Structure formats: structure tokens, C-alpha cells
């Protein structure tokens, strides 16, 4: 099977400081990869390099495109990369405000990606928006409300709907449950798990919350100081951590 | 002609710089060309961009017409016409047919333009994406990459809120299937007439941008399949000349709810009246004069 995403020796430095160094992994279709690590370990740098939002200093990010097969996204032209970013990729920000247009109604937010790829039928766009709002448990009567009128959890769900409406194959998530209270987190995780399984999505989830990866991720990568220090199946890494830092990380979680 | 000014106020090097921007704009229809806009002896918002473009286009043989909201006799039109009478000494006219250069604000003349004419627009905000994406660096990238999904988000929002596309002026258009352009605040009624035989130049003084439409350029108003573009107008004939195909102004005539609809293009309306067309509220024709 061709990996959906193949990353080789990806490095990014900020001047003399290391953002992430020599990261390599394969991501297969339908697989969810968790990236954990403490603050400043290079998780977000890595994610932004993968999603084309930061330019890495070296390495390869090969994505299996629908039309042309595996292609290195780092040497793609900017229009091609943008096209990919609004069709086959999705990016869920930690803060929903970064990923939403706060001055535009919920329906407009969901419809934007459809219109960006050429949808020009108002009725179709609107029914797709309502359908997707339903899937993320936002009722139809909120379709014309702006995200400013939504709670934090609803904004995050709206951001997910907005990203998934074009049926992407790869979703990047940066702390999708950060800043939400635990009951809302649980519902959001439930929803994400359902969507990932139903749509057969591949996802890369950056988080520092081990519970999130335990629930969602098939495989886990542990980062420290820009290096990947351990990777493997999620349960294996969490239940039998090998690296000293992973052992520390796992034992730091408070057991209730 | 008053000798204190160089012809048409601006110095020759400045006019040359503006002409280069105009030529580039004509070569890439709809693309906003930056230019070094000068301070003009009038406030921003009064047509400093249009005036600079007009100054760069004028020759001593030209005849200038200036339109403000369709009319020739409002403050803006009168002062810009006087400005060029004084600084360029060119002939001026109120007749669309006789003019070779027409500077306009908010309207395209009703009379079809010819290949011998130049229409200069005064543009307050040249960037159609301005209120959707505040970063100028980003809007430039969006133009470069033809990333125009956001423009339709605005139209979507219009329909979601008002049941129809409520944008009535500065209605966005796509030029030659490439650049999305703000046609300046003309009513959307005028949009179909952007496809014209005349050269159309757009000058934004404060924003320092010039863009252009060469003759017979394809200009398509953006819309949805199920909400097609509709160049709406008031559903009345002109009260003075009886025309039912022109853009109308609503004029309040008293405080009892009395109103009349008249052509906003004053030159076109008076020409029709002179040709014998009569509306409901037209003054009676005096037998002695006719």
C-alpha cells in the first residue's frame, strides 16, 4: 500500500535553535498519528511544516495526490499547494478563532471551501452547509448566526465542519481540544472519533493531552527538543514506554 | 489658458509615470497597477485618482465632460471641469456625444460610448477583497493565485441575510475570466455596460492604484447559478422624459410623501426631452417656443 504521507528527514531551525530535526515517518490511509511532547518540543513546528504553513530547511514531505500520485509538497508551486490545502487537506487550529471567519455566518464559513473549489449553486452550498452543521451537532436554525454568537465548543465543532466539507483525506489538528472544559472535550473527541472512522480520514494530531491520543490515535510519536525520541503503536508506547522522557510523561498524568 | 500651470496641472514626468501605469493596466485588464499618486489641490475622496488619470490622458484638442452621480451640474463635476478649464484650457461640454474624455463618478453615461472616447472613473477603494481580507499582502497573493472563493462568500452572506444579492453598487466583476475587479461605486445597473467600445480607466488616488478595461473586454458580474445577476432599477419610467430603460434617481418633492423618479443621467434626459419625449411630470411644451 502506498503511504498517504511520507516524511523524510524534515528539519526546521530558527536561527541557531532547533525547531524540529530529522523527522521521518509514514502515514497510511485511514491512520491517525498522534504527536505528543511538552511545550517547545517542536510539535507545532513539525505540524506547520507538514501543512505547508512554514517552510522547512530540509527534507521531503511526499503526499499521495489524487491526480498525479506521490508528489513532494515542498517543491510544488504555491497554487498547487493552496489547491491541496483547500481540497485534500484540512487544518484544525487550537483556537477556533484562527480557523474561522468571525464576521461571516456559520453557513458561509462552511460554504467557503466549496465556493473556493468552484461551487456556484447557492441552494447546493446551503444544503451542504446545513448537512455538515448537523453532523457536528449544530442545529439548522443556527446556520445564519455568526461564530461570535457560538460557545467555544460550538466554534470548535464549526471549525471542524468547515474543514471537512470538501471531503479531505488528511486532517492536521493542532490541540483540537485545548481550552475546552472536560465534558465538552469528551463530546468533541467522540465526534472526531466518529468522523475519522466514518470518513476513513487520515489525521495527524498534535497534543500534550495523553487522553486525546489514547482515544484517537493509532500510532504515537513522542518528541523532545525537536527530536522524535520514541514512536510506535499508541497502546504500546503509553503502556510500556521505553525512553526516559516518555516514562516521565506517562507517569505525570494524574490518575483520578 | 492661464500660463501659471503646466498643461493639465501635473508636470510632464508625472504624467509620463501615470501613462506608463495606464498602459500596463490596459495590457493586464483588471489588474491593479501601483503608481506614485500625487497630492492634488483637492481632498482625497473628491476624485484625486480620476483627475490624475484625466490629466495624463488630456491633449489640447480634447473635449472634456465630467459627471458626478450622472449629473453635470453638481459640485464635484463643476469644480473638476473648472479645474481643467483653468489648468489645461481644454474645451468642456455637458454632452456625452461631443466629449472625447469623460471623467465620471458613480455612473456610466446612458448614451453608448464610442471607440473615440475615454471614460475615466474615480475610485475610492480599488480592492474588491478589502472588507473580506484586511491584509493587503494577502489580497495580492489571492489575486495572483486567482483565489477568489471569498468573493462568493460575500454574495452568499447577502443571500443568507436578505434573500437576494443585496449588493447594489460596486458589484464585483470578473474581467476576461482572470481578475476580479471592483468597478468603482457604479450601480449594478451599469455593470452590463462595462463591456464597451471606449477605453475605461480607473484611478484611485489615495490608494495609489490604476486599473483599466480595454475596449470590448469581457466583463462578467459574479453570481450564483440559482441567484443570477440582476441589474435592477426602480420600477418606474422617468417622470421628465418617460424613458423606461435608464437608471433613475428618486427625488422627494414635498413632505407629504410626494416623489418623482428621474433619469440620473441629466444629459441623456434633457436630450430625450429636446427630442420630444415627455414623462408624467414634464413641464408643458410652450407653443410659442416650439
Automatic annotation (TrEMBL), chain A:
Keywords: ATP-binding, Nucleotide-binding. InterPro entries: AAA+_ATPase, ABC_transporter-like_ATP-bd, ABC_transporter-like_CS, P-loop_NTPase, PhnK. Residues 5-250 form the ABC transporter domain. GO terms for molecular function: ATP binding; ATP hydrolysis activity. GO terms for biological process: organic phosphonate catabolic process. The keyword Nucleotidyltransferase does not apply. The keyword Cell membrane does not apply. PANTHER family: PHOSPHONATES UTILIZATION ATP-BINDING PROTEIN PHNK-RELATED. This is Phosphonates utilization ATP-binding protein PhnK. It comes from Pseudoprimorskyibacter insulae.
TrEMBL record, chain B:
It catalyses: alpha-D-ribose 1-methylphosphonate 5-phosphate + AH2 + S-adenosyl-L-methionine = alpha-D-ribose 1,2-cyclic phosphate 5-phosphate + methane + 5'-deoxyadenosine + L-methionine + A + H(+). Its EC number is 4.7.1.1. One of its GO terms (biological process) is organic phosphonate catabolic process. The keyword Metal-binding applies. InterPro entries: PhnJ (IPR010306). One of its GO terms (molecular function) is 4 iron, 4 sulfur cluster binding. Keywords: 4Fe-4S, Iron, Iron-sulfur, Lyase, Metal-binding, S-adenosyl-L-methionine. The keyword Iron-sulfur applies. It is an enzyme of class 4 (lyase). It comes from the Bacteria. Catalyzes the breakage of the C-P bond in alpha-D-ribose 1-methylphosphonate 5-phosphate (PRPn) forming alpha-D-ribose. Belongs to the PhnJ family. This is Alpha-D-ribose 1-methylphosphonate 5-phosphate C-P lyase. It comes from Pseudoprimorskyibacter insulae.
Amino acid at each position: 500500500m502506498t503511504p498517504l504521507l511520507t516524511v523524510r528527514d524534515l528539519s526546521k531551525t530558527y536561527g541557531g535553535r532547533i525547531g524540529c530535526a530529522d523527522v521521518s515517518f509514514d502515514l497510511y490511509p485511514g491512520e491517525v498519528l498522534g504527536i505528543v511532547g511538552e511545550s517547545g518540543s517542536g510539535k507545532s513546528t513539525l505540524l506547520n511544516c507538514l501543512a505547508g504553513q512554514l517552510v522547512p530547511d530540509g527534507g521531503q514531505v511526499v503526499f499521495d495526490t489524487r491526480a498525479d500520485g506521490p508528489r513532494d509538497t515542498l517543491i510544488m508551486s504555491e497554487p498547487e499547494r493552496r489547491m491541496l490545502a483547500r481540497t485534500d487537506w484540512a487544518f484544525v487550529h487550537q483556537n477556533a478563532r484562527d480557523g474561522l471567519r468571525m464576521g461571516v455566518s456559520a453557513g458561509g464559513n462552511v460554504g467557503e471551501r466549496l465556493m473556493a473549489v468552484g461551487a456556484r449553486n447557492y441552494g447546493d452550498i446551503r444544503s451542504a452547509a446545513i448537512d455538515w452543521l448537523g453532523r457536528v451537532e449544530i442545529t439548522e436554525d443556527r446556520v445564519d448566526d455568526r461564530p461570535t454568537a457560538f460557545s467555544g465548543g460550538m466554534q470548535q465543532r464549526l471549525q471542524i465542519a468547515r474543514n471537512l466539507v470538501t471531503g479531505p483525506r488528511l486532517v492536521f489538528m493542532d490541540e483540537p481540544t485545548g481550552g475546552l472544559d472536560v465534558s465538552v472535550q469528551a463530546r468533541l473527541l467522540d465526534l472526531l472519533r466518529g468522523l475519522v472512522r466514518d470518513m476513513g480520514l487520515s489525521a495527524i494530531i498534535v497534543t500534550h493531552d495523553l487522553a486525546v491520543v489514547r482515544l484517537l490515535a493509532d500510532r504515537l510519536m513522542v518528541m523532545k527538543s525537536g527530536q522524535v525520541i520514541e514512536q510506535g503503536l499508541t497502546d504500546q508506547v503509553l503502556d510500556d514506554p521505553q525512553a526516559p522522557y516518555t516514562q516521565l510523561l506517562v507517569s505525570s498524568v494524574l490518575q483520578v | 489658458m492661464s500660463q501659471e500651470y503646466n498643461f493639465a496641472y501635473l508636470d510632464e514626468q508625472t504624467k509620463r509615470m501615470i501613462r506608463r501605469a495606464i498602459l500596463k493596466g490596459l495590457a493586464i485588464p483588471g489588474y491593479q497597477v501601483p503608481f506614485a499618486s500625487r497630492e492634488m489641490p483637492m481632498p482625497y475622496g473628491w476624485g484625486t485618482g480620476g483627475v490624475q488619470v484625466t490629466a495624463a490622458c488630456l491633449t489640447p484638442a480634447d473635449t472634456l465632460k465630467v459627471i458626478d452621480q450622472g449629473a453635470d451640474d453638481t459640485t464635484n463635476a463643476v469644480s473638476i471641469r473648472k479645474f481643467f478649464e483653468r489648468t489645461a484650457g481644454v474645451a468642456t461640454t455637458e454632452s456625452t456625444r461631443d466629449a472625447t474624455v469623460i471623467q465620471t463618478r458613480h455612473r456610466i453615461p446612458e448614451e453608448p460610448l464610442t471607440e473615440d472616447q475615454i471614460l475615466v472613473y474615480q475610485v475610492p477603494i480599488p480592492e474588491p477583497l478589502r472588507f473580506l481580507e484586511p491584509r493587503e499582502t494577502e489580497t495580492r497573493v489571492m489575486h495572483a493565485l486567482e483565489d477568489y472563493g471569498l468573493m462568493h462568500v460575500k454574495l452568499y452572506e447577502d443571500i443568507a441575510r436578505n434573500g437576494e444579492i443585496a449588493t447594489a453598487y460596486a458589484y464585483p466583476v470578473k474581467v476576461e475570466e482572470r481578475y476580479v475587479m471592483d468597478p468603482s461605486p457604479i450601480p449594478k445597473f451599469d455593470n452590463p455596460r462595462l463591456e464597451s467600445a471606449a477605453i475605461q480607466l480607473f484611478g484611485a488616488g489615495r490608494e495609489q492604484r490604476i486599473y483599466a478595461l480595454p475596449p470590448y473586454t469581457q466583463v462578467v458580474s459574479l453570481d450564483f447559478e440559482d441567484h443570477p445577476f440582476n441589474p435592477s432599477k426602480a420600477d418606474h419610467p422617468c417622470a421628465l422624459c418617460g424613458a423606461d430603460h435608464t437608471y433613475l434617481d428618486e427625488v422627494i418633492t414635498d413632505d407629504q410623501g410626494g416623489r418623482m423618479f428621474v433619469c440620473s443621467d441629466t444629459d441623456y434626459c434633457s436630450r430625450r426631452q429636446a427630442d420630444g419625449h415627455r414623462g408624467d411630470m414634464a413641464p408643458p411644451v410652450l407653443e410659442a417656443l416650439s
